[in-house]
């Protein structure tokens, strides 16, 4: 038995090393050929906007639809919130990045593209705004969550080819709108919404299993 293992172990190790080498070589070609940037722009157009904002901005404003929405009949100020902030901070460059239907879980993933030196300086600021709807199941289980989670794959600094593999294998919460609607209904049926002891525990405790939890629910 030991002789058999000693015979096959070097062959398996050699194949493993060759496979790793091929993967890194393919990753190098994938990036250097420009194909990664093309597919990144295709699957996650927000990622390039984040790169630009962190590169050029002193203040990066991350928002959802409330950043750019206004009533054209009653609102006399038709600028976005980030543009309004720029007026109050003329000495800083404010870069706004907004996406409809985003919630705090996705904003947390977006921070994965924040350069490391931002955390070490007091001169850079990130502003994150969400409305009250973003904290409820309508945001956690909305029909666009699969698309949002696919985009979020590119919000991390990992090997480029690995991101592409994750997209191909649907390695994210890819439930369709019908499945999300069922999950939202089940969420309402299994959540204890009563405040407990006045302490502000708004959503009580989950009585269902872990299958109920969406990628964003852990943040609420």
Q: How many DSSP E strands? A: 3
Oligomeric state of the chains present here: single chain
Share of helical residues: 40-55%
How many helices? The count is 10
Give the termini distance in whole angstroms: 54 Å
Shape: extended
- Rounded to an integer in angstroms, the radius of gyration calculated over CA atoms is 22 Å
Would you identify the regions where 5 or more consecutive residues have pLDDT less than 50?
198-212, 216-220
The main β sheet shows up as: 3 strands, parallel
Structural class of the secondary structure composition? mainly alpha
Biggest sheet: strands side by side, in what order? 2-1-3
Give the topology string: H per helix, E per strand. HHHEHHEHEHHHH
What would the average pLDDT be, to the nearest integer? 80
Beta percentage is 5-15%
Protein traits:
48% helix; single chain; mainly alpha
Q: Gist?
A:
By secondary structure, the chain is mainly α.
What report would you give on this structure?
There is one protein chain. This protein has helices at 2-32, 35-43, 45-56, 65-68, 81-88, 104-110, 137-140, 145-152, 160-168, 177-190, and strands at 59-63, 94-98, 125-128. By secondary structure, the protein is mainly alpha-helical. Helix 2 (35-43) packs across helix 3 (45-56). The longest helix is centred in the first third of the chain and has 31 residues, at 2-32. It is extended, with a radius of gyration of 22 Å. The chain starts with a helix and ends in a 30-residue tail after the last helix.
């Amino acid at each position: 038995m030991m002789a058999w293992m000693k015979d096959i172990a070097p062959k398996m190790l050699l194949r493993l090393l060759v496979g790793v080498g091929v993967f890194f070589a393919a990753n190098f070609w994938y990036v250097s050929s420009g194909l990664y940037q093309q597919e990144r722009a295709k699957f996650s157009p927000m990622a390039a906007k984040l790169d630009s904002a962190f590169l050029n901005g002193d203040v990066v404003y991350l928002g959802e639809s409330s950043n750019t929405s206004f009533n054209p009949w009653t609102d006399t100020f038709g600028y976005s919130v980030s543009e309004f902030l720029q007026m109050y901070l003329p000495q800083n460059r404010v870069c706004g990045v907004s996406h409809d239907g985003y919630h705090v879980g996705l904003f947390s993933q977006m921070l994965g593209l924040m350069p490391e030196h931002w955390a070490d300086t007091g001169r850079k600021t990130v502003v994150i705004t969400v409305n009250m709807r973003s904290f409820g199941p309508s945001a956690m289980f909305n029909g666009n969550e699969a698309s949002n989670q696919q985009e979020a794959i590119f919000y991390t600094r990992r090997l480029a080819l690995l991101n592409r593999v994750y997209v191909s294998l649907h390695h994210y919460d890819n439930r369709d709108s019908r499945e999300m609607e069922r999950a939202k209904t089940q969420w309402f049926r299994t959540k204890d919404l009563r405040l407990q002891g006045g302490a502000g525990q708004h959503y009580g405790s989950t009585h269902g299993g872990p299958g109920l939890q969406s990628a964003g629910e852990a943040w609420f």
